[in-house]
Amino acid sequence: MTSLTLVYISLSGNTHSFVTRFATFLKETHDIESKLINIKDLKHETFPIEEEFLALLPTYLEGGNGLDKGDTEMLTTPLRQFIAAHDNYKNCFGIIGSGNRNFNNQYCLSAKQYAKQFDFPMLADFELRGTSADIERIAPIVIEAWKAFSTYYSGLKID
User: Fold this and answer.
1) How far apart (Å, rounded) are the C-alpha atoms in residues 39 and 77?
2) pLDDT at 88
3) For residues 124-153, b (16+ Cβ closer than 10 Å) or e, as one string?
4) What is the DSSP string of 27-40?
5) CA spacing 20 to 30 A to 80: which of 9, 36, 59, 144?
6) What are the respective helix, strand and coil percentages of the chain, to the nearest 5?
7) How many angstroms separate the CA atoms of 123 and 94, rounded?
8) Do β-strands 2-8 and 92-99 pair in parallel, antiparallel, or remain unpaired?
């Protein structure tokens, strides 16, 4: 059985809910086990991640409109620090963002910023807790990106 590491931060429980449902879906439909790492539980501890991983995060920004102000990340920075530490970003094959569409330009802005800073793709987004349709839509995107990354960087074949 193949295993996928999901590195995320969840503050209100929405992202955690999505990640656990996503992991269950991957196991039941693709026989992929998931290793879940919630950065919130680490209390700013970092360690190297040797395997490929997917990052997921919600968007929490300081006020504004996401254009000329209000694009400063808050509360989720421990995930950014974890990805930067030990060059972990080199093993991240992509990121998924969540947010609230009511915030217009700020919707999933943190994930877009991470993708730009660390030069990995933003693979998908979902609103709030996500739906089962979001999980079904996102799973093949993640699996294809993971396969491409693994094949290119390590020669690992994922079934």
Assistant:
1) 10
2) 97
3) bbbebebeeebbeebbeebbebbbebbeee
4) HHHH-EEEEEEEGG
5) 144
6) 45, 20, 30
7) 6
8) unpaired
Low-confidence spans in the chain with pLDDT less than 70: 1, 61-74, 152-159
Which residue matches tokens 């086990």? 33
For residue 54, the surrounding DSSP H or E stretch is strand 53-57
Grouping H, G, I as helix, E, B as strand and the rest as coil, residue 61 is: strand
- Rounded alpha-carbon distances, angstroms, from residue 133 to 10, 11, 21, 101, 147: 21, 23, 11, 17, 22
Token code pair at residue 121: 């793709």
Dig out the tokens for 113 from the structure: 């910023």
Q: Which residue's structure tokens are 């997921």?
A: 56
Instruction: Quick: pLDDT tens for 13-56.
Output: 999 999 999 999 999 999 999 999 999 999 889 999 999 999 99
Q: Which residues pair with 96 in a beta bridge?
A: 56, 124
Strands 92-99 and 122-127: parallel
Q: What's the pTM?
A: 0.89
| Two structure tokens written together for 4 | 């996928």
- Residue 67: per-residue pLDDT: 58
- Tokens 């802005």 map to which residue? 109
CB 92 within 8 A of CB 64: no
**Helix, coil or strand: residue 59:** coil
